[in-house]
Write a structure and sequence with these properties.
- By secondary structure, the chain is of the alpha/beta class.
- It is built from 11 helices and 8 strands.
- It has an 8-stranded mixed beta sheet, sandwiched between helices.
- Helix 1 crosses helix 2, helix 5 packs antiparallel against helix 7 and helix 7 packs across helix 8.
- The longest helix is centred in the middle third of the chain and has 19 residues.
- It is globular.
- 44% of the residues are buried.
């Protein structure tokens, strides 16, 4: 992380009020006259990481970010009511219009990559370029790769998968696992709730990084309970509802963004999002560049991922500004 762009604060922040009563936190940083770029965080439920602005040259970019429904500083916290992909896409467009932006670059990782692609497909005329990290296409096979018994995590980390799926008596499937956890998240017993939230979050963290620091134990001790709560609840909610996306929707509609320049950065050993998904997306999207980072998994903290993202934002700005 020391080799990324310097960290900066935001120069403006506020709340976007939605028609159905949500208050979504957003902030702006960088150069107000620069290239507008919307940062879309992952999860669903992860909220904004403290260092997300470090992938951008703040002299070139006007950086905009918001915390999606139920996440971080947005209100109501952890709520599943109205929390759907369609509403999030509408939130993105409402924010764009509120800030008076005609076109912007979309930058997203993991679930944020899904939203970037869906938003571009929905309104390609508003998009200058797209930068993605850890492609998640929201298909049945993508859900199975993350949670299913034949998925990458279950096959590579069977001992952790056994802990994650402990006490699930039915035959394992993504739907059965999500239903089990949703019931525990809604339990009247707070100890059951907390234990389930932690198990889900630990599974996510175990898979997100290829290499763990020596002595790593309970991941949840390093993160606030609020983050553990909203990431576990929202991931489960979206996966149980098939991400509110028609099967293969992104690849079936990729022609709508065929003319938009894009960069795809994906870790070779990503256990959360299939590397094959990034490859298929690249093959179907003629204006995209694909960078598969060797020796890296899913997280931006791993070798080469962050640096490739910085290179991608630099190259995109030079192309859009016609500079070198």
């Amino acid at each position: 992380m020391k080799r990324l762009y310097p960290d900066i604060g935001s120069y403006a922040s506020g709340y976007l009020h939605t028609a159905d009563g949500c208050e979504l936190y957003y902030e702006q940083s960088g150069n107000p006259d620069g290239i507008p770029v919307l940062y879309l965080h992952g999860g669903p439920g992860a909220g904004l990481a403290p260092n997300y602005k470090r992938f951008f040259d703040t002299n070139r970019y006007h950086i905009i970010a918001f915390e999606q429904r139920g996440c971080g500083r947005s209100k109501p916290f952890g709520s599943l009511a109205g929390n759907s992909t369609a509403n999030t896409l509408e939130d993105i467009d409402t924010l764009r219009r509120k800030l008076g932006i005609e076109q912007w670059v979309l930058f997203g990782g993991s679930w944020g990559a899904t939203l970037a692609l869906l938003s571009a497909i929905r309104q390609p005329q508003t998009v200058l370029g797209i930068i993605l990290r850890g492609v998640f296409l929201g298909r049945e096979e993508d859900r199975n790769w993350y949670l299913g018994p034949e998925g990458g995590g279950a096959q590579l980390y069977p001992e952790h998968y056994e802990i994650f799926t402990n006490n699930i008596s039915s035959s394992l499937s993504v739907d059965i696992i999500c239903q089990h956890y949703q019931q525990q998240f809604d339990s009247a017993d707070e100890s059951i709730q907390l234990a389930a939230l932690k198990r889900w979050y630990i599974w996510e963290e175990r898979l997100s990084r290829l290499y763990l620091p020596p002595g790593t134990g309970d991941f949840t001790t390093h993160y606030p309970l609020s983050l553990v709560t909203c990431l576990a609840k929202l991931e489960c909610h979206y996966l149980l509802n098939r991400c509110f996306i028609e099967e293969n929707y992104i690849l079936d509609n990729i022609d709508k963004i065929a003319h938009i320049p894009g960069a795809i950065i994906h870790g070779r050993y990503d256990i959360i999002c299939k590397t094959q998904a990034a490859w298929l997306l690249h093959k179907a999207w003629p204006q995209s560049d694909l960078h598969i980072v060797s020796g890296a998994g899913h997280s931006t903290s791993e070798g080469g991922i962050g640096l490739k993202l910085c290179s991608a934002t630099r190259d995109m700005s030079r192309m859009l500004q016609g500079t070198t």
